[in-house]
Amino acid sequence: MLTIHAAEAVLGAPEGADSVAVDGGFVVAVGPYADVTAAFARARVRRWSGLITPGLLNPGARALLETAYHPDPREADELGTEPLTGDAVAALAPDDARWGASARRGLQRMLRHGTTAVAGEFTRPSVRLAVSRSGLRVHPPAVTGADRPPRLDPLAGVRDPAELRAYTGRPPAAGDRADLAVFGVRDAGELAETGAAVCVATVLGGRLVFRAS
What is the set of domains in the chain, with CATH numbers? Predict the structure, then answer.
């Protein structure tokens, strides 16, 4: 469905560009709201408060999915809600099926942080299958962020707005796959300061896969 995502601004786009039109899983236009809506008068409009960006790359995804266990909500009383690592995972000794279920939950948590691409070579069969079915793009192991601990928020520890490009790529443009995120901030400086925990929405291949309540 032809959809226009409109917010306060689009990261990296020319001044005044605050809207992205999406059709068939691809970006078809980026520009000021008045221009984009005039060009696509029949489009559904989703209005967001914040900054539209390309979806984020999480460079630590392999560790997050293959060495960290994401508890099921039904396990919260016993295991808590945060990812388990190290000795806690060793004691749990998940089998491959359990690793796959953990990976699916981890991928959902990544989507809630605006992630639409992951980096790494996934070796556990059930994890590899979960990643493949998620629709997230898979990149080769990343150099960017390799010196930072793997985190669900790929922007954790980023303070310089100039560093954002390594996680977002270039600004969205017509012809790109419609992988987008919306963050509840006004500009790149605020996004670098707050990180991806302020994600408002994630669009993966043109589909709205996360919306903050």
Answer: 3-55+168-211 (2.30.40.10), 57-139 (no CATH)
Q: How far apart are CA 164 and CA 8, in angstroms?
A: 18
Q: What is the pTM of this model?
A: 0.94
Q: In what order do the strands lie in the sheet with 26-31?
A: 26-31, 19-23, 3-6, 44-47
Cα Dmax for the chain: 59
CB 99 within 8 A of CB 141: no
Model confidence pLDDT, tens digit, residues 54-99: 999 999 999 999 999 999 999 999 999 999 999 999 999 999 999 9
Q: Which residues contact 10 (CB under 8 A, 6 or more apart)?
A: 17, 18, 19, 20, 30, 51, 52, 53, 171, 172
